[in-house]
Amino acid sequence: MQYLARLDGLAKGVTIAVMALFVGTVFYAVQAFFDTKNQDLFLVTAFLVIVSAVTYFSKPTSFSIDEYELVVHRPHGVFRTPVENIVSIERIDRKSLGWGIRLFGSGGFFGYLGIFYYGSIGRVSMYCTNRKEMLLVITEKSRFIISPENSNAFLAEWKNLNR
Description:
Elements: E1 2-4, H1 9-36, H2 40-58, E2 62-65, E3 69-73, E4 78-82, E5 86-91, H3 94-97, E6 100-108, E7 111-118, E8 122-128, E9 135-139, E10 143-146, H4 151-161
Parallel strand pairs: 8-10
Antiparallel strand pairs: 1-2, 2-3, 3-4, 5-9, 6-7, 7-8, 9-10
Helix pairs in contact: 1-2
């Protein structure tokens, strides 16, 4: 079964604010380029376009699990983890994560994506869009956090497969 990855309120707000700022910057940069022929602002805008595109194409759109693999579906490609490598999947909340730092990624723009470090669990990759639906997936070699819509049903499906 496929579980959607919907943005929570903070991620929606951050995404809308960043995109509004981005559109304003692009408009200003294009106007400034034609007025002054200054390429500096144009290059900054190109960089912002690239960063935004990479972030968008990295965000999860849905999650699925079957007897063979757990899949994080993204606009550009998928991230697959064989079920036999999964040690556990458990619910986790912001309070139990404790303090954290983003090492590389996005802290709200199109979700919570990338590599983070949390005091309670250490280094973790995040494919998260909703902080209220977080599940910690522990494999033999890594750990990552996903946030499928209706995480209780996802967890129940995992437990059913894991019998």
